[in-house]
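Appendix B, Record 12. Input sequence as logged:
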Amino acid sequence: MDTSTQTERTRVKRLPNRGAYDRETIYAILDKAFICHVGYVLDGQPYVIPTGYARIGDDLYIHGSAASRMLRNLAQGVDVCVTVTLVDGLVLARSAFHHSINYRSVVVLGKATFVEDAAEKEKALEAFTEHAIPGRWPEIRWPSELELKATSVLKLPIEEASAKIRAGDPKDDEEDYAMDIWAGVLPLKVIPGEPIDDSRLKSKMPVPEHVSGYGQGR
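Logged structural output:
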């Protein structure tokens, strides 16, 4: 299998040294983030919609209500651009111009199709849940037939994609390094807080391990 997802459309043109096209790098970013932004054009009007997603192998799955205008239009073979971004830190330089952000991002281009097969659809819904919180699916009620009908799932093959990564120190102008100004990186992380019981729990019960230990594997 070709491990590169580089095409002329996905080639990083500005600061190309930050670009990556190997599936290992791209998948690591996709598997870490929670929200993607789906861009498409409908009747000349561009839209960018945030939504949840999951990856299974070399395919990206997007889901939502069966009544979703976005999903209905994407399923007709409309070109789509899916982006995912992780913010790793604020880059504080000596000059305003060189302030930046350390980040990891992915862009996936292609055409999405409806998932019609029931088994594949259920597998995708499981992947959505497990992507958000591993270990949750075995403990919950699975979707009913009515809920499955009310949910649409789209599949987007990860064939054209690129990652772009910015890491490390500020890149100041050489003469600015002599200035007496603090510069560096302020790391940013998503840290889970204390779980809060649903007010309608039937009784006091221990928090499941996949919740109390959340974050250790992400």
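The chain has five helices and ten strands.
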